Amino acid sequence: MIIILATVLVVSIGGSIVYAYASSYNEIGLKIGGIVNDVVLNIHAQHPQLQLTHAHVLAVMCQELPSLSINDINSEGRQEGYTQVIISTYQGLVSGSLLGGACAYTASLEGGACADPHSRTDNARCSIEVGACLYDYLLSQCNGDPACAYNGYNTGSIQRFAQGTPDFVRGYNALSHGQLCAKAAFNRPLWESILHAVDVVTGGTFKTNAAAYVPSSKYNLLRTKIPSASAIQSAPYSYINKQMQHLFGGSDTHAHSSYKQKPRSVSSRRKSHSTTTQTNDNGTNDTSAHTTLQAMQRPKANNEIICLPKPIAPGEEAIVMWACDASSDNAQSADIQTDGHTQGAVRVTPTATATYSVSCKKGDTEISKLTCTVPVDVALHL
Q: What is the pLDDT of residue 167?
């Protein structure tokens, strides 16, 4: 059990009480990363022919509950946990009455705790594995197509398009390359810690061919209150490295991401651009402050710009992502800081509805102008 008292985190692991200062909030993220790894290993052992990766599981979590607060109330007024599996579906999966019993094994996990549908909102392992098992099954029905599988996950039918599928696919593509999904902005410090843990245990691949039966995860979290992003104090990297060694064993020398040098930056595994974090105080858009996250190293795409999430409350954080196609060699904007990069993302904190534009250029010639809007709804502050 984890209880937050003022600036002290009290963690009960295997009956032993461990105290840590508030800077150890990131340990929660590291443990969630460990749980995700145990989930993937266990599902591979149960269904060795299937194709689930760490990136798939993280993408489901990022799309369904990016705040990472397991008992958050969703837009339909319910608490559904990390993977947002509704109670009737959860009961059918753990009982074996759905999917031909493919997920019935989950009922015995964590000493049988996962058989109780209430574990969706107070047991991290149960919440993640039951949803991951469902998505894994849908992947098999879709020949490994992540979009098709998410359609089924969200709508109940792989034949029916889910409105959130484009966002899910973008998140999956980012995570499979070790980059934060856009919705990670809801709780960036914890997402960075999760990605760092998965980066380490997978050697930077965010997938594995390994399999192991894991009836109980030593990283599991029960009834964990996740602090909001604004309440989290990032720990120094030396502390995070120490926690990694404590949780996963050995040294952290095989981590492949930029977290080691810049623990607050997004991971990047390609070397054509460096990851940067800098603040621009001279932007021409006077409704927002904006900070460069990184030159995102993802494959060239069609000209595209995305603003997420929508809508936000005044002063909350959103992300603007852009990608120019291969015909462009630079990108410029009067609204955000692009540093000339043809692909990237910035954080913005508008106080009123704001529109952001990026010009994709070949030299000084504009190839395409991309525009997206972040709606700001004052009512969300109420």
A: 93
Residue-range domain boundaries for the chain: 2-248, 278-381
Q: Which residue, chain included where needed, has tokens 């889910």?
A: 162
Which residues of the chain register pLDDT less than 50?
1-25, 229-240, 250-301
Check residue 9 and give its pLDDT: 34
| Residue 340, both tokens | 């000339």
Give the whole-angstrom CA distance, residue 85 versus residue 130: 8
The two structure tokens encoding residue 124? 């991290």
* pLDDT attached to residue 37: 94
On whether the pTM is more than 0.90, the answer is: no
Cα–Cα nearest to 153, from 53, 45, 67, 59? 59
Paired residues of 346 in beta bridges: 292, 320
Between CA 350 and CA 357, with CA 351 as vertex, the angle to 5 degrees is: 30
Write the DSSP symbol of residue 235: P
The angle subtended at Cα 244 by Cα 242 and Cα 245, nearest 5°, is 65
Most distant pair of Cα atoms in the chain: their distance: 65
The listed CATH number (2.30.29, 2.60.40, 3.30.70, 2.40.10) that belongs to domain 278-381: 2.60.40
> How confident is the model at residue 217, as a pLDDT?
94
Give every strand in the sheet of 8-13, ordered side by side: 2-5, 8-13, 16-21
Consecutive H or E run containing 280: strand 278-280
Q: Is 180 helix (H, G, I), strand (E, B) or coil?
A: coil
Specify the residue for token string 């995102």.
Answer: 296
Distance of alpha carbon 136 from alpha carbon 56, whole angstroms? 9
Is residue 103 within 8 A of residue 93, CB to CB? The reply is yes
